[in-house]
Amino acid sequence: MKAYLDEGCPYCRAFGKALKRLDREGRLVLLPVGSAPEGDRSALLEALHVFEGERVHRGYGALLALARALPPLRPLYPLLWLGGALGVGPWLYRTLARRRPRDA
């Protein structure tokens, strides 16, 4: 499993550090968006992307995939799933993603 994080966003960098601590089994590879092929970068900057084999999870779906894959986050999965089913989770994710700061 690999995820692209926006290295220009302080929230994304903090999230990446937290994910590294939670990934006790070493299953997750975190990559900066700047290392992605140029044609993919604009989409990767809009939302978190998690690649799991052939599957690509984007935005709130990427958070669900991480919660499902990382054992310390698994207890949160039902709550996150419910947030997705009710539409609150994706709305909150999009709202925060649009307002996240970027380094100059």
What does this structure look like?
The protein is an alpha+beta fold and 104 residues long. The chain has one domain. It is 49% helix and 15% strand. The chain is built from five helices and four strands. The chain has helices at residues 10-22, 41-46, 60-69, 77-86, 88-99; strands spanning 2-5, 29-32, 49-52, 55-58. It has a four-stranded mixed beta sheet with strand order 2-1-3-4. Helix 1 links the parallel strand 1 (2-5) and strand 2 (29-32). The relative contact order is 0.18. The mean pLDDT is 92.
In a nutshell, what does this entry contain?
The chain crosses the membrane at residues 76-93. Keywords: Membrane, Transmembrane, Transmembrane helix. With 104 residues, the chain is an alpha+beta fold.
> Mean of residue pLDDT?
92
Number of domains: 1
What overall geometry do the principal axes of the alpha carbons give? globular
Distance between the termini: 30 Å
Question: How is the main sheet built?
Answer: 4 strands, mixed
Helix percent reads 40-55%
The SSE string, one letter per element, is: EHEHEEHHH
Backbone structural class = alpha+beta
How many beta-strand segments?
4
Strand order of the largest sheet: 2-1-3-4
Poorly predicted runs are: none
**Strand residue percentage:** 15-25%
Q: Output the number of helix runs.
A: 5
- CA-atom Rg in angstroms: 13 Å
